[in-house]
Amino acid sequence: MSVQSDDLNFLIFRYLEESGFVHSAFTFSRESNIQHMNVNSSVVPAGALISIVLKGLLYTEAEIALNEDGTQLTDHEPLTLLESVQPEVVSTRQRYQGGPIATQAASSAATNNTASAPRPAAVASPGADKEACVPAAVAPRSAKVKSEAHVTTPSRKSADSISSQRAKAEPKVKVEPRPTEVSVAVERTASITAVSTAATTTPEEPREVAMDESVATGTPTPAMSPPAAQASTAPTPVTPPSDTDCKASVLRGHTSEVFICAWNPRTDALASGAGDGTACIWNNGEAKVLHHQRDTEVTSLDWNNDGTLLATASYDHYARVWDQQGKLLHNLCGHQGPIFVIKWNRKGTFLLTGSVDHTAVVWDAQTGQIKQQFAYHTAPCLDIDWQGSSIFATCSQDQSIHICRVGYDKPLKVLTGHKDEVNTVRWSPGGNLLASCSDDTTAKLWTTRDDSFIHSLERHTREIYTIKWSKTGPFTQFPNAPLRLATASFDSTVRLWDVERGESESCLRGHGEAVYSVAFSPDAQLLASGSFDNCVHLWSTRDAKLVHKYKGNSGVFEVCFNRDGTKIAASSADHTVTVLDIRYLQNRLQ
């Protein structure tokens, strides 16, 4: 018999997955390259690793408990798993219990009727069976599951290394309503300081062409309905900052890391999602709490274009649709693994989700039923983005990008060129340019006409976690402003790119840790960045200067501007959402 490391790694991965250690399974699958193994997982039974361990434990006990003639000792006490790997414990049992490997000295002593020493007491608790003696988890080669220094998160990556997603799906999880309300508090803190750095130039305006976006129809697939989630209200008064007040409003109420936040596109309502199984809709200091399955991370959320509906996705394999008042309208059931991202199409007729189960699903927003499932990737789907209302892009750990259309049974294009997993895809406002970023430290620009990238953006030195287009240029409210692309990397920098030439026009330095998020103001005059150095930086895109800095108490996962660019929201690992009112700053910069 031989033991191959790949076989053992696969069994460990399956054990972590079956035991519910989701984050550890993700990390272990990435570092051990499970996705590249030629293993037919369907023939490997559940509990395979435990079965092998139990057989080894029984063999060790047999060495101790059987006489040389094959008869069993009547006073044998079972070993625990940890005892079985301690040579001194095994040898002691063999010596005092008279097993076949007992020493000659012990045999001689028995012949001379020498009294044996008392047997050591077993460590296992009374009544415990062998399965109960198996440790709760097997540690993978690395404990760097998600964030750099403190907590696990449902984000697609880690700040220390970008964690990959598991290649196998969990069984469906029954969704239970969360019975208790989340207390909400709002406090104010002053922590904004002005800083300045070097200046750079602005890019030339790129040319874009609109795309055809007709919608094909399909037959919906019936979906199962889990137990209903629920919303609750927890009002708390808050005084907004004045034009001369630079203090931040800190929204407290979540009991775990807040991974995501998004402003309503029509009002000043703010949505946030956290690892405690809740999302919140904040309105003037009053929070409506949207309860998901208890303690399952809310991984993604998105408002429809008219701001009347909020979609959320979570690790329990379900997506949900809520109205502005926090009423649950639809439970979307169909994925076989955690959902990492959810997006509305432009018309609000479809929802798109991407999952660890390797698939993307288009949902009918009116009925909550599956419109079409796209199962083309060979590894977890890490991000998605609509071009308009029927065409969308997906990216995956399998290093590819697929451009698909609702109603078509094959991708319109499969884009390859990245050398590691692709983390984010984003269509430009005009829809003819697609940007992607990857663990291979590059971002790439693609067109709808070509099968190969037109530019490879290669100035970062570590993984690029996210990218963001400005809402400027042709087909936007600011047609005369230049189109900009920003990239955020784990090398602690943000870069602005000339998309016509594919060159870096400026490097924004100032963060001390990985940068998780960037966001342009509506007119693209300002750029916000959030990092695990606990800081939100506000940059002038005109001269690449850092004009303001806010330092919080923990790492920042997400930053976003409200609809008129007067406020910035930042979600953090310390369970809070911070709102920065920058009206005074805008007045001063004009």
Structural class: mainly beta
| E-strand count | 35
The main sheet orders its strands as 1-4-35-34-33
Low-confidence region ranges: 99-154, 158-228, 233-245
Mean pLDDT comes to 77
Q: Report the helical percentage.
A: 10-25%
- From the spread of the alpha carbons, the general shape counts as globular
Rounded to the nearest angstrom, the radius of gyration is 28 Å
| Count of helical stretches | 7
Query: What fraction of residues sit in β-strands?
Result: 25-35%
Distance between the termini: 76 Å
Major β-sheet profile: 5 strands, antiparallel
Question: Would you kindly provide a written description of the structure presented here, covering whatever features stand out?
Answer:
The protein is mostly beta strands. 12% of the residues lie in helices and 33% in strands. The protein is built from 7 helices and 35 strands. The strands form 8 sheets. The protein has a 5-stranded antiparallel beta sheet with strand order 1-4-35-34-33, with no helix packed on it. Strand 13 (339-344) and strand 14 (350-355) form a beta hairpin. Helix 1 packs antiparallel against helix 2. The radius of gyration is 28 Å and the shape is globular. The model is unreliable at 99-154, 158-228 and 233-245 (pLDDT under 50).
